[in-house]
Design a protein that fits this description.
The complex is a heterotrimer of chains A (270), B (275) and C (355). Chain A has 270 residues and is mainly alpha-helical. Chain A is built from 10 helices and 1 strand, in the order H-H-H-H-H-H-H-H-E-H-H. Chain A folds into 2 domains: 43 residues, no CATH class; 196 residues, Orthogonal Bundle (MetI-like fold). Chain A is globular, with a radius of gyration of 24 Å. In chain C, the strands form 3 sheets. In chain C, strands 1, 2, 3, 4, 10, 11, 12, 13 and 14 form a 9-stranded mixed sheet that branches. The chains are: A mainly alpha (270), B alpha/beta (275), C alpha/beta (355). At the A-C interface, helix 1, helix 2, helix 5, strand 1 and helix 9 of A face helix 1, helix 4, helix 5 and strand 7 of C. Chain C: Its main location: periplasm.
């Protein structure tokens, strides 16, 4: 039988899916053992027991200096920034994207600006943001908004623009005003796309969050990583990276579930 | 009521002339079928009636008044595809028109007003044979059911003119004859004028009271841009049909192409006139 | 099928082990030094560019590659991971990063100490006591943090009295001009720019804790033990260049201008930074400091600070966890776990002209 026709069954698929994770794990364990044999205090690839002890210290025991449980304090600080940033970006993208898609006048006025702004590399703006908005929360949230909003806006405008012209005309024959076309015909049909767009922007949003926190903060996931990087505390960095990844994966799954629940029709294909 | 007058209508896109000097009068409650080869401008003509396009020259009058330059609730439309909203349920689609007409800010009604509209919508759905499908989404319906839904949605607005753009072109033959029967009944019972674009002559003869064929009088490649289409044939179907009155369809018997009654002498000719 | 998969895993694991294996000390001929831009370390770049490195490497029949890092912490991390044989680092970071990470490290050269290059700056405040209750922007866990701790200590306060906000060093000057920043600890060249801003007052600087913030050139202990020629070459390069730099001659001025340009300022700016640096231009001075009892007292402050901050590692139960061998032969802390060594040997050789 040709390889192209060889389909794994359920069990094999599970094994094949887990195998690369297992291989990475094993490579880590061997690398760690080799390094620790040469230098018991090595920080680069800590042993699993060291990692476990660090996780316990970070996630379950209060920090002796501040009394906070570091992982939760950092997670809350970061998620608050992420929530503000993504919330504002989503709202803004929705408003501008809808206007650009529905109103030819708004399209003429705004789409060159949006196209231009979406090409600005957000991280390059960071020093300007810090000067203009200070080192506090505002500039971090602003970086996330500037980083993800133009892309989402363009994506939404494209999605709205791709709606069949027939639907708009049909709505007009059903006595809809421009406003009603926007909120009852266009908006509900681009909301599923908005959620997908948001899912795709989670990665960049985390990137901007961590970049902003690396520069100035007193709590946050990115802050902690860049702080302990100073003394090569991989036993902190590895769990934090895993935790950020897990958070992003959970957010992604949550958003997909939300879309299925709120917009059941978006799963149907005629 | 709902007399359409088209006077010296021209439609050009830049250098290209699509429709050339069309003058027609369509009687109230007529059922006009527009036929013709692809690219002869029949869909453009329909869009002009709809207000989706604006004439380059000439005018269209509805009961003596110039048509508004954009689509409105006096003219309903059913397309071959994309006529219904995929994000609304069947009931939601049919309620959309009355809801948006009366609730100008939210486009939704609540309480008793909503129940009244829903009642009306359910009756309309029963009328087109969609009772029981109220909570489905359009993507869960067959093609024929989607077109029934589109008709119901359009008729909720009680349009004076119903415009159909190849509405049944994508349906299987059996389903098509069912929906033809429905269309005949709706036209008969609803005070409206129907203009339908079709490429199916059999369908045109089955449904219409009058068949207008568009054609390009000069259709050599080098002439195609500079000469548009105009009315080639204008055929009144015999025996004359009129909506609302007793017709042969009041019986359960549906005439078909091979039926000798329909193929008696006609006042027009099916052969194209002119060059 | 199964054996092939196992084979693949073994290959992957071997690859991992290979990539991450630490530098093993042995006799070798090729050496790598990492350095980063700072007033006290500019001679390394100058020496590399002007043939001084090549001259000494050839004398000992070895090769030395000198790499400049734009990121100081990354250069130390690379050294700790084993990618470099030597690195320029402060005494504090040498203890908290490579030494606490189990990499036995020897200070081959003690070049200078910060004598005003690091400072606590307040906006609208006259004395250090005004810092109470303010947020303080600094690079957390850096010498700035240490300076703050020592400053607060000097007026009977502790870190509980302020709120530390980690801020990246390239953003310090801009940050100081935003309204919410009212206190800052940083180093030169930022300090000299910030004190010129309106409302800025320097309330404490490193000249008040002399000899505690040392600029070193350190090397892997195993490497210099097996290859003393490398350490000798380092000392040769260093004192050749420093002698030139400190000379009040046209060549000296040219060297200072070149180093100033390389650090983003000019000759005057560089000389201003040097003025806030106590340079041990003569190897005998460095030897005298390293072998004095003073060094132990200074390092004791540093290691206590690091232990307080948890920077000696989560398993460290006291400041003694990481042993420090001082230049006079005594050991501070755990003698069985000496990971940082101050060795006067090669500076002594330079003083004696025996290189």
């Amino acid at each position: 039988m040709r390889l192209i026709n060889l389909h794994p069954d359920r069990g094999t698929r599970l094994v094949l899916g887990l195998a690369p994770f297992g291989a990475l794990m094993l490579a880590y364990l061997i690398g760690s053992a080799v390094r620790l044999a040469a230098n018991p205090a090595d920080k680069l690839l800590p042993a699993l027991t060291t990692l476990a002890a660090s996780i316990e210290r970070l996630a379950f025991l209060p920090d002796p200096r501040t009394g906070d449980i570091l992982l939760w304090a950092d997670t809350l600080a970061s998620l608050a920034r992420l929530g503000w940033g993504l919330g504002l970006a989503t709202g803004g993208a929705l408003a501008i994207g809808l206007a650009v898609a529905v109103l030819p006048l708004a399209r003429a006025a705004l789409s060159p600006l949006v196209a231009f702004v979406s090409m600005v590399p957000p991280l390059a703006l960071l020093p300007i943001l810090f000067i203009l908005l200070g080192l506090g929360e505002v500039s971090k949230v602003a970086l996330i908004v500037i980083g993800v909003m133009p892309v989402m806006t363009r994506d939404l405008a494209l999605a709205a623009h791709a709606l069949p012209r027939e639907q708009i005309v049909k709505a007009e024959t059903l006595s809809a005003s421009t406003w009603l076309i926007a909120i009852r015909v266009v908006l509900p049909q681009i909301l599923p796309r908005l959620i997908d767009s948001l899912r795709l922007q989670l990665g960049p949003a985390f990137l901007f969050l961590i970049a902003a926190e690396a520069i100035s903060a007193d709590a946050g996931l990115g802050y902690r990583i860049f702080l302990v990087r100073r003394y090569l505390a991989m036993d902190v960095i590895f769990p934090y990276v895993a935790w950020i990844t897990l958070l992003a994966v959970l957010l992604d799954i949550g958003l997909t579930g939300l879309r299925r629940r709120l917009f059941p029709w978006s799963e149907l294909r005629a | 009521m709902s007399r359409l007058e088209i006077r010296n209508l021209w439609k050009e896109y830049g250098q290209q002339i699509v429709l050339e000097n069309i003058s027609l009068t369509i009687a109230p409650r007529a059922f006009v079928a527009l036929v013709g080869p692809s690219g002869c401008g029949k869909t453009t003509f329909l869009r002009l009636l709809l207000g989706q396009e604006v004439p380059t020259r000439g005018e269209i009058l509805l009961d003596g008044q110039p048509l508004p330059r954009e689509p409105g609730p006096d003219r309903g439309v059913v397309y071959q595809r994309y006529s219904v909203f995929p994000h609304m349920t069947v009931l939601g689609n049919v309620m959309a028109g009355p809801e948006m007409k009366t609730a100008r800010f939210l486009g939704r009604r609540f309480g008793a007003a909503r129940r009244a509209i829903a009642e009306e919508a359910r009756a309309m759905l029963a009328e087109v044979g969609l009772a029981g499908a109220e909570d489905k989404y359009p993507a869960q319906l067959s093609g024929g059911m989607q077109q029934r839904l589109a008709l119901a949605q359009a008729l909720m607005m009680k349009p004076r003119v119903l415009l159909l753009d190849e509405p049944f072109g994508a349906l299987d033959p059996g389903i098509r004859s069912d929906i033809h029967r429905l269309m005949q009944r709706l036209w008969n019972e609803t005070p409206m004028t129907v203009v339908m674009v079709t490429h199916d002559l059999k369908e045109a003869f089955t449904l219409a009271t009058r068949i207008i064929a568009f054609e390009r009088r000069r259709d050599r490649p080098e002439e195609r841009d500079r000469y548009g289409a105009s009315v080639g044939s204008d055929i009144a179907v015999w025996p004359p049909r009129s909506a609302g009155g007793p017709t042969i369809w009041t019986s359960d018997y549906l005439p078909d192409r091979d039926d000798p009654i329909l193929w008696g002498p006609t006042t027009g000719t099916t052969r194209p006139q002119g060059a | 099928m199964m054996t092939r998969r196992t084979g693949l895993l073994a290959a992957l694991a071997a690859l991992g082990a290979l990539t991450f294996s630490p530098a093993m000390a042995e006799e070798k001929k090729d050496f790598k030094i990492a350095w980063s831009i700072y007033a006290g370390w500019m001679p390394w770049g100058y020496a590399a560019d002007h043939g001084i490195v090549k001259k000494w490497a050839e004398k000992y029949g070895i090769t030395i590659e000198v790499t400049q890092f734009n990121d100081y912490v990354e250069s130390i991390n690379q050294y700790t991971a084993g990618a470099y044989d030597a690195v320029t680092v402060t005494n504090m970071d040498a203890l908290s990063i490579p030494a606490a990470g189990g990499v036995d490290t020897t200070a081959v050269i003690v070049g200078d100490f910060s004598n005003g290059n690091d400072a606590v700056i307040l906006k609208d405040g006259a004395t250090l006591a005004d810092i109470k209750g303010r947020p303080v922007n600094l690079v957390e866990f850096s010498v700035s943090h240490y300076l703050l701790a020592r400053a607060l200590d000097s007026v009977g306060m502790s870190e509980q009295d302020v709120q530390v906000i980690n801020t990246a060093d390239p953003d310090m000057i801009g940050a100081f001009q935003t309204p919410e920043v009212t206190a800052m600890v940083t180093w030169n060249p930022m300090v000299s720019a910030i004190v010129k801003l309106p409302g800025a007052t320097k309330v404490f600087d490193s000249s008040q804790i002399p000899g505690e913030i040392l600029d070193l050139a350190v090397a892997n202990t195993e490497t210099v033990k097996d290859n003393p020629d490398f350490a000798k070459a380092m000392a040769g390069i260093w004192y050749d260049t420093v002698t030139l730099m400190a000379a009040d001659t046209a060549e000296g001025a040219a060297a200072r201008a070149a180093m100033g340009a390389a650090s983003g300022t000019d000759q005057a700016g560089f000389e201003e930074q040097l003025a806030a640096t106590k340079l041990y231009a003569k190897p005998s001075d460095a030897v005298a400091f390293v072998t004095s009892a003073e060094l132990g007292a200074k390092m004791d402050h540093v290691r206590k600070f690091l232990f307080d901050k948890g920077l000696l590692g989560p398993s460290a139960s006291s400041p003694d966890a990481v042993g420090i061998a001082l230049g006079d032969g005594t050991v501070l802390g755990d003698g069985a776990n000496v990971k940082l060594r101050f060795a006067p040997d090669w500076m002594q050789a330079a003083a004696d002209g025996k290189l």
